[in-house]
């Protein structure tokens, strides 16, 4: 019998999430039936969107999340022991995967078979070669549509999505301005090719943009929202394309939840109107049909040395909530994952 350790959401987070919003339990898995496999998580992903999930899922259920897993027991010839997959198992060490879920090869809601990574770490399937990588790739190229010589602004720029946006924009011949939350991360942004990088905690955003982008900004890849966007908006060029990828500065604020009426938008209507801005929100699932295209392209850029990746790996399944909470205080550089 395989025993799985499982993190349950047992209390609704109020504001900043806390470790005691979650409870670690042990569960015995049923025996592996015909067509089924038992998969052991190798890395569990922690992602900002889980803060929304913590509002949406029922209490006393397993916390949602994606993991890279190794098949350790198999009664399915398509998935022999030793196969690797990405699955939305939730925060669990071991999972019994039913035949039906093994039949869907989708990254979302199914079993995504790990392609050959040519020696790159498997954890990248949760980061640069997974959902965050494609978020940067499609969000930037399909929504911002940067042209050579244009100026791109990105915040959360040292994180999983942002650090790829910086580098893809540079590959497309743009001038890139990145904002992040520490001086160490500012140095990292310069290392990966940003033309200007600022610590938003110590530098006034408007003043920094005045100096770094006197020509104004053509593409704004927004991961933060709120006050940052309000202060950045006057620095947009006419016809600037804004990709609303995330709004992490608002995730712990219940009044900003989906469907709530907000009278405190960071967007000035007059600015949108007079600058003729195009503002588009997106969810990366939108490009599910082109999933492999993004991953293959990023993998090629990595193997050619054109894109660097970084991961913050927390050791130990016991620390999954800590790694998740750490996202909201900026503890990670690059993708945050937990090694089980
Ligand atoms: N639309 C989509 O399909 C999609 C998919 C994936 C991710 N996203 C969004 O993309 C954004 C980045 O996600 P990620 O996975 O790459 O996470 P990440 O950037 O690797 O980690 C989160 C980072 O957010 C920053 N942060 C936390 N609280 C903040 C605040 N109040 N103000 C400003 N920055 C704050 C921290 O960096 P600093 O040190 O720089 O503050 C932290 O390291 C998030 O908004 C996420 O929801 C959207």
How do the helices and strands line up, and which of them pair or pack?
Blueprint: E1 3-9, E2 22-28, E3 37-45, H1 50-56, E4 61-62, E5 67-74, E6 84-87, E7 94-97, H2 99-103, E8 111-113, H3 131-144, E9 151-154, H4 160-171, E10 175-180, H5 183-191, E11 196-199, H6 205-212, E12 217-222, H7 226-232, E13 236-244, H8 269-275, E14 278-281, H9 291-303, E15 311-315, H10 320-326, E16 335-339
Parallel strand pairs: 9-10, 9-12, 10-11, 12-13, 13-14, 15-16
Antiparallel strand pairs: 1-2, 1-4, 3-5, 3-7, 3-16, 5-6, 6-8
Helix pairs in contact: 3-4, 3-9
What does this structure look like?
The protein is α/β, with parallel strands linked by helices. The protein folds into two domains: 3-127 and 310-339, Alpha-Beta Complex (Quinone Oxidoreductase, Chain A, domain 1), CATH 3.90.180; 131-286, 3-Layer(aba) Sandwich (Rossmann fold), CATH 3.40.50.720. The chain has helices at 50-56, 99-103, 131-144, 160-171, 183-191, 205-212, 226-232, 269-275, 291-303, 320-326; strands at 3-9, 22-28, 37-45, 61-62, 67-74, 84-87, 94-97, 111-113, 151-154, 175-180, 196-199, 217-222, 236-244, 278-281, 311-315, 335-339. The strands form three sheets. Strands 3, 5, 6, 7, 8, 15 and 16 form a seven-stranded mixed sheet that branches. Strands 11-10-9-12-13-14 form a six-stranded parallel sheet, sandwiched between helices. Strand 15 (311-315), helix 10 and strand 16 (335-339) form a beta-alpha-beta unit. Helix 3 (131-144) packs across helix 4 and helix 3 (131-144) crosses helix 9 (291-303). The longest helix has 14 residues, at 131-144. Residues 47-49, 131-132, 135, 156, 158-162, 180-182, 185, 223-224, 245-246, 248-249, 282-284, 327-328, 330, 332, 336 line the site of NADP nicotinamide-adenine-dinucleotide phosphate.
